[in-house]
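Can you give me the bound-state structure? Components:
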Amino acid sequence: DQQVKQNSPSLSVQEGRISILNCDYTNSMFDYFLWYKKYPAEGPTFLISISSIKDKNEDGRFTVFLNKSAKHLSLHIVPSQPGDSAVYFCAASATDDKIIFGKGTRLHILP
Amino acid sequence: EAQVTQNPRYLITVTGKKLTVTCSQNMNHEYMSWYRQDPGLGLRQIYYSMNVEVTDKGDVPEGYKVSRKEKRNFPLILESPSPNQTSLYFCASSPMTGLVADEQFFGPGTRLTVL
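Here's the bound-state model for the whole set.
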């Protein structure tokens, strides 16, 4: 049973426009959510996180929104840049500190 | 430079031949973890450790062992590797913020092939 779902395997967005990556989860015990970015042949790098007590967290061009009632979070990138082309992973953890990742969404930024 | 290192980066081995992948971090992080990445399956947690001598199973622990004798090192041991353990492995470390593992710093990955 997949507890963290990223239903879009890939997404293409025009440079300069907004990229929206979505993530759904099933476990209501998750209380901390993170987004990671991964380039080929490299380890994932942390982007942004959000605690379950918040519904929004912003860091520069990146904003994460959390809708606890819908068990849904999204990552917004504005404006999208060519260097944003990568695979994005959503991750969630509960107090047992086991961390569950989604399968990832490959983002293509088009010129 | 703050980093997580893994060795080896690439390994081809045969079924049943015990191997160890080392992981070391120089950031004094309490939390360390191992993941495997497979096509279409994303990153799956194998084992994690919240501190020295404390290890717990992740989602896919079968066929793997770990140890945490020192804070900086977290080796992954495959006692009897099988072809289904062919994968890309990542080690990660994280400071603990209260009760929660914070952002993780990942190593560069180890590509393992078991023939």
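A couple of observations. The mean pLDDT of chain A is 94. The CA atoms of residues 21 and 75 of chain A lie 5 Å apart.
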